[in-house]
Amino acid sequence: MTETTENNASYEPPSPQQHIIFLLRKYKLVEGLVNLQDLQDKSHTVSSVQKQNLAELQNYLNQLHPADIAHILEALPLEDRLLIWSLVKAEHDGEVLLETSDAVRATLITDMGNHELVAATEYLDTDEIADLAPDLPQNVIADVFRSLPVEEREQLRAAMSYPEDSVGALMDFDVITIREDVRLEVVLRYLRRLEELPDHTDQLFVVDRNEQFKGVLLINRLLVSDPEMLVADVMTAEIIKLHPGDVAQQAANAFERYDLVSASVVDDTDKLLGRVTVNTVIDFIRDKAENEALNLAGLSEEEDIFAPVLKSVKNRWGWLAINLVTAFIASRVIGLFEDSIEKLVALAALMPIVAGIGGNSGNQTITMIVRALALEQITTGSAWKLLTKEVGVSLVNGLMWGTIIGAFTFAIYQNAELGLIMTMAMVLNLLLAAILGVLIPLTLRKLGRDPALGSSVMITAVTDSGGFFIFLGLATIFLL
C-alpha cells in the first residue's frame, strides 16, 4: 500500500506540449497505415478513427490558454504546426498570433486567407490589432479599418503612428475614467454596471469634462473608504505620467522602479490618451532581452527553429561572413610570425590562451555596458569614468591571472622569460578588451544602432587578432 502511494505521488502528468505530440502521433499512425496498406474494405472504419483523433485533438486544444497553444506551435515542425493551427478555434486565432514569435507568426499568417485574418482581429482590442498590424498584408489592414467603428478606427490609426520602441506603441485605450466631484458610492454603482473591468485595473483615472488628467483613484482606496466621500478627497494627484513619444524602455524602468501595475499616458496638454499595463511592459522587456541576445550572437532577427534551410542561412550569413574576414586577418597575423613559431614551438600552444581569456573578458565588459545602456545608467559625463574603471579592473585581472599563467608556463617549459611574456601579453590583451568592450557599444549607440548588434562578434575578433599580435610580437622581440 505504501509503495503504491509513493508511485502515485511521483507521477507527473504530461505537459500540454507532450499530450499534443502524443495525440498527433496517434493521428499520423492511422494515416500511415492508410498509405501503406490496402484498406478499401475498412475505409469507413479508418475514416471514423481519423475523425475521432482529430476531434480529440481539437477538444484538448479548446481547453488550452492561447499562450500555451502558441508555445506548442513554436515547438512543432511546419507540417504538424499547420495541422494544429487548422484546429484552433477562429475566435482564438488573434490571441494565439499575438503570443507567437514573429518568425512563427509569419508562417501562420501565410497559411491564412484574407477573410480569416480579418475575422481574427474581430476578437482583439485596438492596441492588440496595432501590435499585429506590421505582420499583416496591406489589403487586410484596409479591410480591418473598414470593419471597425469610427472611434476604434481612429485609435488604431493613432497606435500605428507611434514608433515600435515608444510608449505609444505599448499604450492600451481600454481605460475607466471618472470625475473628481462625484461620490464613491456613485463610482461603485457605475462599476457594478460593467460586465467586467479591463485587465490589470488597479486604479481608475480621474479627468475633468475636457478629459484633462487630474489623478488616479486606487481600487483598494475605493473599497475601504466611506462611500459618501468625494473622489477628490480620496484620489492621488501625484502619480507617474507617461507620454506617447517617450522611449518604451523609460516606461519599463518606471514600472520596475515603482512596482507599477498600470500608468497613465497623457499628451503635452495633460489630456488622458490611455494607459500602459504591466503585462505589456513585461512582454516588451522579454522581447528586448531576446533581441539583444540574438544581436550579441550576430543574428539579424528571431529565427523559427523549423524554418527552411535557405531562410536560416540568410539570417546567419552576414556575421559569419564578417567572422570569416576576421579569421583571415587573425591567420595573417600569425603568418607574420611563422619564423618565430618555428624556432619556439611552445608559442603555438600558448597563444590561444591569451586570445581566449581576452575574448571572455571583453564579452563580460560588453554585456555589462549593453545592460547599463538599456537601463540608461550611462551618460556622456560618466562614460570616461566607466572606461577608467574598466581599465583598472583589466589591469588587476591581467596581473593576477597573467602571473598565474606565467607561473604555469614556467613550470611546463622551464623558461622564465616565456612566463614573463605570457604575463605581459595577458595584461595588454585584457587592457585592449576592456577599452574596446566599452567603446564598441558606446560607438554603436552614438551611431543610432543597437549597442548589442554584433558586439560579441566584434570583440572576439579584435581580441583574437590583438592577442596573437601582442603575444607573438613580444616573443619575437625578447626571445628570438
Radius of gyration from the CA trace? Answer: 30 Å
Structural class: mainly alpha
Unreliable stretches, pLDDT < 50, 5 or more residues? Answer: 1-6
Task: Profile the largest sheet.
Answer: 3 strands, mixed
Q: What is the helix tally?
A: 23
CATH topology of the largest domain: Tetracycline Repressor, domain 2
Superfamily at the CATH H level of the largest domain?
Answer: SLC41 divalent cation transporters, integral membrane domain
**N-to-C SSE string, H for helix and E for strand:** HHHHHHHHHHHHEHEEHHEHEEHHHHHHH
Approximately what portion of the residues adopt beta-strand conformation? 5-15%
- Helix share bin: 55-70%
Number of domains: 3
Give the mean pLDDT: 86
**What's the N-to-C terminus distance?**
80 Å
Strand order of the largest sheet: 1-2-3
Which features does this protein show?
CBS-domain, 23 helices, MgtE N-terminal fold, 3-stranded mixed beta sheet, 6 strands, Tetracycline Repressor, domain 2, mainly alpha, 5% strand, 3 domains, 480 residues, globular
Secondary-structure topology with pairs:
Blueprint: H1 2-10, H2 16-36, H3 43-62, H4 66-74, H5 78-87, H6 93-99, H7 102-110, H8 114-121, H9 126-132, H10 138-147, H11 150-161, H12 167-170, E1 177-178, H13 184-192, E2 203-207, E3 213-218, H14 219-224, H15 231-234, E4 241-242, H16 248-258, E5 262-266, E6 272-277, H17 278-296, H18 309-335, H19 338-343, H20 346-374, H21 380-413, H22 416-446, H23 455-479
Parallel strand pairs: 1-2, 4-5
Antiparallel strand pairs: 2-3, 5-6
